[in-house]
Amino acid sequence: MKPSKVILIVLVLAAVVVGFRALPIRAGFIELEGYVRGLGTIGPLVWTVAYVVCTVLFIPGSALTLGAGGLFGLTTGFLVVLVGANIGALCAFLLAKTLLREKVASWAASNAKFKSLDRAIGSQGFKMVFLSRLSPAFPFSLLNYMLGLTAVRAGTYVLANLLGMLPGIFLFVYIGAAARDAIAGQADASAGFYQQILKYIGLLATVAVVVVVTRIARKAMREAEQQQEGNLTSGVPLLNADHQPTSFTAMTIAGDAHDGQLIDNCHPPRWNNPTPVGKYNLVVIGGGTAGLVSAAGSAGLGAKVALIERNLLGGDCLNVGCVPSKGVIRAARAAHDARSGAEFGIQNTGDPQIEFATAMARMRRLRAGISAHDSAERFRKLGVDVFIGNGKFVDANTIEVDGQRLQFDRAVIATGARASEPAIPGLREAGYYTNETIFTLTELPRRLAVIGAGPIGCELAQSFQRLGSQVTLLTDGAEIMPREDRDAAAIVRAQMEKDGVKIITGAKITGAMQLTGVKNLAVKVGDKALDLACDAILVSVGRTPNLEGLGLEAANVRYGLRGVEVDTRMRTSNPRIFAAGDVCSRYQFTHAADAMARIVIANALFMSRRKATDLVMPWCTYTDPEIAHAGFYEKDAVAAGFEVATITQQLSDVDRAILDGETEGFARVHYDKKTGRILGGTIVARHAGEMLGELTLAITAKQSVGVLSSTIHSYPTQAEVLRKIGDAYMRTKLTPTVKKLFAKWLEWRR
């Protein structure tokens, strides 16, 4: 929050306190109480009218509620407050609805936050009003008017308001009545000690009930928010239900020295699981990025932590994802650069000789070296109890691994996801690779068919083509990389086709078979059928969460085909159990898993309330050129209610890109027309992922596009494309009127 806003809030609060003390409000309450005592039977009616007036005038009603209990006792006082509070709330609601609703609705059309809230109240009016009334975190006098500005209906409001007020009114009236009886008991010597004890026990019981109801209300409110915002769980549904996770033995090459080192680090054959002693602060199931960060971070803060992994520590990123794929991509780029030297005066007498086995051995060697960072031994030295084996929940706070039971205060499910298997007849019999097995290749396939044109499919299709395969990329969609802007994906497609990749869109694969060492895919494109012969098939059609054998039912953890269900704070339906990473998130990236794990540590161990929805999530597809993105796409920003403007700057206008011969690409920034705040952006360049950090930081810090202009960039660099976008934005501020004023000023200065 800006300092100016903080100062304003402090001044307003100070004014309220001073006003309450300076004005005769307190004296007015005392005078009103004395007056009502003298009215006799009509006293409750006068008190009810006073309550209505105070509610409409924003005067807090807690004093009146306590006073009703003291004046009239529990039964009459409860009825008086119930009637007065509801009539007053309805009057305030109708005033706001009648006078301001239309104006606010018109303004809300361009305000994303209020538009979202308005939609939520309109669709779940009763639930939202009822829950907000139950929770004392909401200022009720203000809430009456705020709800009147939304789409909730009057009838719904009255009923939900009436029911939601009951616990709070009862509590305050009871306190007032108990206080009166206690004072009377002190004056009356005949009042017994045990009678007073019973009254205070009743008071404590009432407070306890309201606290419990409040907690239930807050939990239900979070669930309502989650339904409106969209659950974090997403991904590709399970295509073949009997498709099981890949064992680490299928991900590695038996007898290979480098893979042997990897296994020794990440699934030690002679590892002895420790003996659990006492309750753990945190038990983590899954040793991928989310699990490792959760375990290491928690142990570093002093928590007693257990980590369970059944496959390879390091998860997808180390073993079958980021690390090996980028090793292959680097080799492929070297091959491409060797072929492309003529422009730079480097003459090649022929096509470069590529030793595919050497390139893959380099990848395995580097992966094995990196694996020490994720090794079981390293985590043992960090103070984590590492268990190699299958972990499963046996109840809401116990996990069993290889016959040993681990009690926990909190747990994290971080089991990740695996490559999905499409339901293509004959595919399993014909044999295929996924990203989990493709890195075991030591011999280059002469012809490779890639099914799926998402990030993984496109990255590996281009890489294997550059390494010497003849690659055919098949997708049932109209284009490759459907998530990205069409002009961005078109640049990558053009380069892939220039490299030699054959791309077939709108392709439906109806069957697969293998005959005499050759694989065949039956493909239908529109009305045309064709047979595609190949030597290897790579499947890349999405991800399936790893949920098998976890015993989630025993732990009361809800899940579905898309993974474990979590709220915005990464909690499952069991409040003791959290989840992070690919098993629960639509953002299936290593850096996303890392960020979610940090949220889990704060929320699980330190009762923080950090939200995953507050994260600005960047991502990059490592084709050549790369496509990197952060924040909103334009269509999503418009749907969220922003008035969006966009600036696109071509790399062909950037000196360093011209000198590098890498002018096919651009940077694009979407911003809010009203504030200039950056909403999102895309970069298409050979090193777009390295350039995206500046844009991600600006979005996270809620900066204006102008900050890109005021940031000094080294010259010459391709990142200057962002400064050019900032300059273009600043030029939009130089309207003809402003320019004319500047001219007058400068003329006067001459």
Q: Describe it for me?
A:
Mean pLDDT is 84; it is low at 187-196 and 220-240. 41% of the residues are buried. The protein is an alpha/beta fold and 750 residues long. The chain contains 27 helices and 23 strands. It folds into 4 domains: 18-229, no CATH class; 248-341 and 351-420 and 544-614, FAD/NAD(P)-binding domain (3-Layer(bba) Sandwich); 427-541, FAD/NAD(P)-binding domain, CATH 3.50.50; 625-737, Enolase-like, domain 1 (2-Layer Sandwich). A hairpin with a 4-residue loop joins strand 19 (619-621) and strand 20. Strands 1, 2, 3, 4, 5, 6 and 18 form a 7-stranded mixed beta sheet that branches. It has a 5-stranded antiparallel beta sheet with strand order 19-20-23-22-21, sandwiched between helices.
Q: DSSP helix count?
A: 27
| CATH homologous superfamily designation of the largest domain | FAD/NAD(P)-binding domain
> Structural class of the secondary elements?
alpha/beta
Number of strands: 23
Identify the CATH architecture of the largest domain.
3-Layer(bba) Sandwich
Distance between the termini: 43 Å
**CATH fold naming of the largest domain:** FAD/NAD(P)-binding domain
Question: Approximately what portion of the residues adopt beta-strand conformation?
Answer: 15-25%
Low-confidence stretches: 187-196, 220-240
Main beta-sheet strand count, sense and barrel state: 7 strands, mixed
